[in-house]
């Protein structure tokens, strides 16, 4: 369909060309052609390295035309470390990309399950999102060949309830174990830490101990039930603009024995402050690896390679649009998430110049909306993604991607 649309565009521009003459016409023609740039989709012979997409000086038209294409041979994995990718059920493109690029993914985590508490008992919801057709497509190359299926289980309860659950986690173990066996999962991604940190639970010694004990027990339970995996979603170890990590290295070492990976959310660097800026400045991403390199004291040894490999550096496949002046429509913060679809249509509409920032290693651009409000947009490009993959490769850590349906298809070629 998209190819049809672009062909029609080319034809329209061609007819226009025949019907006009002179400089004014040529100018109009240019504008017309520029407006007609349409994204192309699907497999192509051209590799990303020849596409112009890796350049610092990146014309918007190159992104529009080639960003949604992908190299036809998606059977090879390029990155040496472990790759975990999230899929959200409300964004169907993620299901599709997970299947198309399954050979590049070691684990896929559909965001399906919520852990709730009702009348003093654990209740897990979200089973209706389990998609059998898709699981079969993911494993179409034969048993044991597809990526591991490790859906996310997120704790959705208030802190008082969490305290009760963590103090007596047997019910939680049984409930999660039942789902893992029932749906024949390879394991889970467990998400609760962001809330534990945000609500200051982790600064309470008793809470912290109970939380660590629960996570370790969860890991042991899953391992004992057929070597099922446990991945932990955790916030960036160094919060944006802070010098001290929130996570003690001793805890990391202790947990690493029972956890198969830490999915570290190294993105959203500027959403807290609401100030327009990069999503994952590369120096901050590197800072997040410091905890592995150095302990509390200078002579503390480096963590083991096995622990390094469990560290899954977060890669954002989405971006943010910051309104630079208050606008009623966009809410007080003036922040809107940007997906591949949004990015490409913003580029088509505003035809901006993309700027590369050498310090943070990200592209961005500005545009003015219909109400005259200026915006600054920070969305990953193949070059920025590659820079972070190189950081992970050098450090011998893995990566975790949020999420597979929000990125340009071209990003997958880099994995
Ligand atoms: C389930 O997966 C199939 C195959 O990937 C997909 O076409 C379909 O849209 C999915 N269904 C739902 C409800 O998400």
* Low-pLDDT residue intervals, each spanning 5 or more residues: 1-21
CATH T-level topology of the largest domain: TIM Barrel
Task: Summarize the main sheet.
Answer: 11 strands, mixed
**Mind telling me the CATH superfamily name of the largest domain?**
Glycosidases
In terms of DSSP E residues, the strand content is 15-25%
Termini Cα gap: 28 Å
Question: What is the CATH architecture annotation of the largest domain?
Answer: Alpha-Beta Barrel
Q: Largest sheet, order of strands side by side? A: 6-5-8-9-10-11-12-18-3-4-7
Structural class label: alpha/beta
- Give the strand tally: 18
Total domain modules? 2
Small molecules held by this entry? 2-acetamido-2-deoxy-beta-D-glucopyranose
Describe the global form: globular
Round the mean pLDDT to the nearest integer and report it. Answer: 89
Helix content: 25-40%
Specify the CATH class of the largest domain. Alpha Beta
